[in-house]
Design goal:
Structural class: mainly beta
Radius of gyration: 16 Å
Largest sheet: 5 strands, mixed, barrel
Low-confidence stretches: 147-152
Bound molecules: zinc ion
Strand content: 35-45%
Length: 152
């Protein structure tokens, strides 16, 4: 651990800042709708004809909206360690954009540790690895409850 080169499992989906990683999205210039994964061809808002987008970084914190335990290997582009280990997935409403982003929950957090309304933050964590690399993806990490607004 720690000697492998860390690379993104998905190119261009998030920044690689180790302390404050952020998801990369686009925002329609016409109707201000956010898109993650990035949309850059035409706006998916049925009431909008927008075809121009701003690149934006999404909020790094949000609130758990729902969650589940994933006991099946996800389809591509996701890849999984072998043997496959079940993990929790959370749907998180981002603080600023109010959009819901799915993500794995960091290892060590059980489904019984999660509840709707829980505060979480975005971190990068290995999705899988080979001999030389750790392939990073975003995951949701619970923020300590009772720790008001990040003070320690
Ligand atoms: Zn639009």
């Amino acid at each position: 651990m720690g000697t492998k080169t860390q690379v993104p499992a998905l190119e261009g989906w998030f920044t690689l800042d180790p302390d404050t990683p952020a998801l990369l999205a686009t925002r329609c210039k016409a109707c201000a709708t956010y898109f993650f994964p990035r949309e850059s061809y035409f706006c998916k808002n049925p009431d909008c004809l927008g075809r121009e987008f701003d690149d934006v970084e999404l909020s790094r914190t949000g609130t758990v909206w729902s969650f589940t335990n994933n006991c099946f290997k996800p389809p591509p582009p996701y890849r999984s360690p072998e043997p496959f280990v079940p993990y929790a997935i959370a749907a998180v409403e981002l603080d600023e954009e109010k959009m819901v982003v799915l993500g794995q929950v960091v290892p060590g957090v059980e489904i019984s540790d999660l509840h709707a309304g829980q505060r979480v933050e975005l971190v990068l964590d290995p999705l899988y690895e080979d001999d030389d690399h750790e392939y990073l993806v975003w995951k949701w990490k619970p923020i300590d409850v009772g720790d008001a607004e990040g003070t320690r």
